[in-house]
Design brief:
The protein is of the alpha+beta class and about 60 residues long. The protein is built from 2 helices and 2 strands. The chain is extended.
Amino acid sequence: SLTDALGLAWSLRDIDLDTIQRLEIPVRLTRSPTDQSIVVAEQSPKDVIAEHYRGSLPNEDD
C-alpha cells in the first residue's frame, strides 16, 4: 500500500549511501535481427547475490 511504501521510505531516510553494497550483474551486448541493441545478463541476479554471500543466500523471512 502507499502507507507501507511511505513508511519504508521514511525508515530508510538516515541510511548512509556509502554503506550500500552495489552488486553488478555481468552483461553481454548484442543485436536483434532488426538491429536493435539488446543487453543479455550472463549471470542470474540470484547467482550474483549467492556469490556475494559466499553461496548462502540470506533468509528473506528475517
